[in-house]
Amino acid sequence: MRRLAGLTPAGDSEHGAISVLVAILMVVLLGFAALAVDTAVLYAERTQLRNGADAAAIAVAQKCAKNINDPDCSSTSTLAASLANSNAGDGLSNVKSLLLDKNARTVTVVAGAQEAGKQANNVSLFFGRALGFNSTEVNAPSTVKWGSPVAGTTAFPLTFSVCQVKGHVDGTLQLLQSHGSGANPGCNYGPSGAAVEGGFGWLPNDPGICGGLIDLAVSEGGSDPGNSAPGACDATLQRWAADITAGRDVVVLLPVFNKVTGTGAGAVYGLISFAAFKVAGWSFSGNNSLPDSFRNKPPDIPSAVKCDGNCRGIIGSFIQYVSLANGFTLGPVDAYGATVVKLTQ
Prior knowledge:
37% of the residues are buried. This protein is of the alpha+beta class. The protein has five helices and 14 strands. Strand 10 and strand 11 form a beta hairpin. Strands 6, 7, 8, 9, 10, 11 and 12 form a seven-stranded mixed β-sheet that branches. Helix 1 (10-66) crosses helix 2 (78-86).
């Protein structure tokens, strides 16, 4: 039998097509490998750089807040480079830029990658080289502002221990008791569940203002003794009741303390943060102008977290922690020397 000239067996043709297809797929797979491996490396590098930039910017701002003429309160601060390096896994990084604006009280540090013997700000790639990309620039910025607190969201003048708050910043509805049987289990405070003897967590407030007085210079708040809510908070609590009844969210800042000294009016709470708290109900003494449903039996509250009888406290859910510094707007450093340094970017 004759084979017709010019014809190729089908198997040979298929083998050739598969080889081409495999070659194409290898390029695609190599691209995905480059994307996965190199992206992970770049992400880890940028995380280290961001930590270094944050540390450097905060340190320079702290120097400026204390003394505007400090040698490290400058765009050539050696402190910045030291902290950027110490936050790098290999101890090497590069302060690409340090911009200092003493009038606006801001410092911006951009930390860049630095590999031994390599071009500054660049990170070597692994699989990317197969595609013609040997390295790429990686950097991370951080901006910090300093100044004295001049304004901000006023915290509700009732503080709770971190041991009551810890582990509950997850939206779970809960009761925070300031007084009454069963209050503050395991927190080892004063009698009848009070935060301290003669003190029930209330902070002093400005006359006529329902807001806690907090000394940000030392992160402390004093004590307003007794378990009755300040009279200045009557209007605030009535507004809360109206908003909750109308279905509007009521979110307040509650100061959180981790230590307390003294008793009664002499007690001092060591504050560590604010907790953004979505209020669902409460029971406070001394607010007879409020509806009974909100003083003792908040509506739509499960029995497990209701606050009635001799219970005094607030019901709701934590949303997030807010730093003491971030609760306030900063202005020029005042004559009293109380300053706050906070990240803005």
